[in-house]
Amino acid sequence: MSQTPIGQAKHIRVQHLAEAKSQGHKLVMLTAYDQPTAQIFDQAGIELLLVGDSMGNTMLGYQNTLPVSLKQMAVAVSAVAAGARRALVVADLPFGTYESGPARCLDSAVKLLKAGAHAVKFEGGRRVAKQIELLSQSGIPVMAHLGFTPQSINLLGGSRVQGRDAATAEQLKAEALSVQKAGAFALVLEMVPAKLATDITNQLSIPTIGIGAGSGTDGQVLVWTDMAGVSDWVPSFVRKFGDLRGALTTAATDYAAAVRSGTYPDQGHSFQ
């Protein structure tokens, strides 16, 4: 394991995440879908950038993540990789690109790594253990994802907290151990009770990244448009750290007014 503290690492790699967990350093992750945003987050010190299939409902106007294609993901990955100099770039495998078996999963993951990703993420526990094993053995780092899994929204009956009762909590714990054993380097826990997320974090040697899972995980991830106040609706667990929607509305309104009044472009913004 690298002995370089994660805060001083020139490039974040999977070994730094394991080191962070052992040192009690909280990991910070945000989604990103384009070069300018990735560059801003990278310069802000965000350690992990997730090129999420959440781009479907945040950027592309879809109702959920299911329509997102591998080709769309590859374009976004390439853009984010162009903006990230230090952060670890993790790319979601979209729905339908890995479930059928390890070989299909490997082929999909290779495409995203060739586009610039450093690692991939996909949903599921024991049912995708063989996929995790093959990718790990092939040199492709895998981040697992348990709890509420958006690609299973139709089966789960909507965005619902997972693991509330004893039976499902024990099942989630078992699933977490299975993805660790299969070779995952980290685990996202989405919309699970805080105590359960803390228990899972304590039983695993790999880092956990929470979203709607309380403060007991090894790190946190948010969809950046929720975090920065671009979305007009956010889940109850999201804290808005800005009001970009308001700022952009003001900028666009002021620009329109300046054009209509003839005050833009003025002499200072024209070639003479």
Give a verbal description of the structure.
This protein has 272 residues and is of the alpha/beta class. It has a single domain, classed as Phosphoenolpyruvate-binding domains (TIM Barrel). The chain is built from eleven helices and eight strands. Strands 1-2-3-4-5-6-7-8 form an eight-stranded parallel barrel, surrounded by seven helices. Helix 2 packs across helix 4. The radius of gyration is 20 Å and the shape is globular. It starts with 13 loop residues before the first helix and ends in an 11-residue tail after the last helix. The model has no long low-confidence stretch (mean pLDDT 96).
Quick summary:
This protein is α/β, with parallel strands linked by helices and 272 residues long.
Which key terms come to mind for this protein?
single chain, 272 residues, alpha/beta, TIM Barrel, 11 helices, 8 strands, 42% helix, 14% strand
Write the SSE topology.
Elements: H1 14-23, E1 27-31, H2 35-43, E2 48-51, H3 55-58, H4 70-83, E3 88-92, H5 102-115, E4 119-123, H6 129-137, E5 142-147, H7 153-156, H8 166-182, E6 186-190, H9 194-203, E7 208-211, E8 219-222, H10 224-227, H11 244-261
Parallel strand pairs: 1-2, 1-8, 2-3, 3-4, 4-5, 5-6, 6-7, 7-8
Helix pairs in contact: 2-4, 4-5, 5-6, 6-8, 8-9
By CATH, the architecture is named Alpha-Beta Barrel
Structural class, from helix and strand content? alpha/beta
What is the mean pLDDT?
96
Shape: globular
Count the E strands.
8
**Unreliable stretches:** none
Strand order of the largest sheet: 1-2-3-4-5-6-7-8
Query: Beta-sheet strand percentage?
Result: 5-15%
Count of DSSP-assigned helices: 11
The CATH topology, please? TIM Barrel
Order of helices and strands: HEHEHHEHEHEHHEHEEHH
Number of domains: 1
Helix content: 40-55%
Describe the main β-sheet briefly.
8 strands, parallel, barrel
Instruction: Indicate the radius of gyration in whole angstroms.
Output: 20 Å
Cα distance spanning the termini: 60 Å
Report the top-level CATH class.
Answer: Alpha Beta
Q: What's the name of the CATH homologous superfamily?
A: Phosphoenolpyruvate-binding domains
